Amino acid sequence: MLPGGAADGRRVVTSDDALHAPGLPGSVLVVGGGAIGVEYASLHRSLGADVTLVEAADRLVPLEDAEVSRHLLRGLRKRGIRVEAGARLLEWEVVDEGVRAVVRTARGESVAVAAERLLVAVGREPVTDGLGLAAAGLVTDGRGHVVPSDWSRLETAVPGIHVVGDLLPPPSLGLAHASFAEGLLVAETLAGLRTSPVDYATVPRVTYSSPQTAAVGLTEAQARDAGHDVVVNTLPLTAVAKGMVHGRGGLVKVVAERAGRVLGVHLVGPHVSEMIAESQLVVGWDAEPADVAHHIHPHPTLSEAVGEAFLTLAGRGLHQQR
């Protein structure tokens, strides 16, 4: 996963190693700009380290809405984190003072980066080789995920054997809260209770950085690619009093059908992980903006911005008009 070698747990670390590595580095090079990479870059910056974050895709958290990615990039750079998107780690070596690396930037330049620690956050894969799963009758995909034969019960091809968590292939998201729901589904199935399958389309996604991101449902691009006639409303968090008090920017973006239901809600800013749950209900219940626009949000809270975004799409906006 790295050109030239593997993690040693000291100078070159994974996200697991980073929690146990000795001391705090004065500088760190983070490779991978998905949720884990962004979270660890933000964490190290909060602890005082100089941070360089490298992502191969053309933007951070590339699975999220592009507008959220832009605001996240702006927020991280404002905190002093050097971000190189569309870039690749070409080579690296461990030296006495840490790690020396060469990064190819999106501009085609080869840039030398020195850091006390290199943190690798380029994804995880199941470790299922050698477990004899095929001999037991279980089906795996090319990456080693265990494939259920019945997703409604998460039951494998072998009756009575179920699979949850990181071993599941997409559409499972490999998120802790999704895994919890999967475990609950299996436990209730084994107990003979009436169950409902996990609705992966409405599982919230959160990046615990500063600023945070949170989302549920389709991005604007995904909605358009799926053929929906899309209408979008974007509202800065500073449109409400609590957002002005925080003074840290951020936004709410709602993606909806022009004459119908809310398809996705996307947030970036302080504490937005605490604001996404209501939007999960809106998306999961196929609600339209007018269905939820009358709900009153407490004042002053950041959640008022979510309510205002729905109000605007329903034609009743206080700070915006469609």
TrEMBL record:
All residue ranges annotated as the Pyridine nucleotide-disulphide oxidoreductase dimerisation domain in the record: 203-309
Keywords: FAD, Flavoprotein, NAD, Oxidoreductase
Any one GO MF annotation of this record: flavin adenine dinucleotide binding
UniProt cross-references to InterPro entries, sorted A to Z: Class-I_Pyr_Nuc-Dis_Oxidored, FAD/NAD-bd_sf, FAD/NAD-binding_dom, FAD/NAD-linked_Rdtase_dimer_sf, Pyr_nucl-diS_OxRdtase_dimer
Organism superkingdom: Bacteria
Limits of the FAD/NAD(P)-binding domain: 8-183
Keyword Methyltransferase: no
One Pfam family it belongs to: Pyr_redox_2
Any single biological process term in GO: 2-oxoglutarate metabolic process
Co-factor requirement: FAD
Record carries keyword NAD: yes
Coiled coil spans: none
Cross-referenced PANTHER family: DIHYDROLIPOYL DEHYDROGENASE, DISULFIDE OXIDOREDUCTASE
Similarity remark: Belongs to the class-I pyridine nucleotide-disulfide oxidoreductase family.
Name the UniProt record assigns to this protein: FAD-dependent oxidoreductase
Annotated source species: Streptomyces parvus
